[in-house]
Write a structure and sequence with these properties.
Length: 229
């Protein structure tokens, strides 16, 4: 058994938004995803850090999740900014049951245990515009609350790992509310996606103030899930 993570698969089997159009590393990305996951065994677990599907609804996402289900290993999915198909966890789980998808779970206001290690996290948030400060503050507070709920669910776990879609730190931006929650629970290890293309040069990597940050968006890691444990 092993634990892996990767973000931003951006599948679009039914939504006709293939990432190949961006060229570069995204060319033949479906084949690259299949090859990257080939290192996993059925007993392994992989955290998917958001933007898994371009679908606009659960029904439209079905082909994407059947593809994910067919990849080796169990998957734990958290929400990304482009996961428009996302609805309530109850509805998503019911949809998966109705369509015989059994190897995918959700990380949302909760905690997922991999052996004795607690897997926690939330989508996160970065203010990309100063035009609506009230909205940004509201979303940041909500995401910090979801992170706190997830970490609280870990109880007294000896080891807690944290996963995001948005990075808690990026370039010169610091999501203070998210960092405060990480410090509150003494979290030392984080992984995130969201950052692509030229933006990757601004990604915060390595240890900052005692917390390690790791970018794992699919194109950054050559579509190979990164082993965590």
């Amino acid at each position: 058994m092993a634990l892996y993570a990767i973000g931003d698969l951006h599948l679009s089997f039914s939504s006709n938004k293939p990432m190949d159009v961006f060229g570069g590393g995204w060319e033949n990305y479906i084949e690259k995803i299949e090859l990257g996951f080939s290192q996993l065994s059925p007993d392994d677990t992989c955290v998917l850090c958001g933007d898994s599907s371009w679908a606009m609804s659960l029904d439209e996402s079905l082909a994407d999740f059947r593809f994910i289900e067919a990849l080796p290993g169990k998957k734990v999915i958290l929400k990304g900014n482009h996961d428009y198909w996302w609805t309530t966890v109850t509805k998503m789980k019911s949809f998966f049951v109705d369509n015989s998808i059994t190897g995918i779970d959700f990380l949302h206001n909760n905690c997922y245990f991999y052996e004795d290690t607690a897997i926690c996290g939330t989508r996160g948030w970065i203010s990309e515009s100063e035009l609506d400060l009230a909205h940004n503050a509201k979303v940041m507070h909500r995401e910090a609350s979801r992170l706190r709920a997830s970490l609280s669910a870990a109880g007294g776990a000896a080891d807690i790992l944290c996963f995001f879609h948005y990075p808690p730190r990026y370039k010169n931006a610091v999501c203070e509310e998210m960092i405060d929650v990480l410090n509150e629970f003494s979290i030392k290890k984080c992984w995130y996606g969201h950052i692509h293309s030229q933006g990757r040069r601004f990604a915060v990597q390595g240890i900052v103030d005692g917390v390690s940050y790791n970018l794992i968006s699919a194109d950054f890691v050559d579509f190979v899930p990164q082993r965590i444990l």
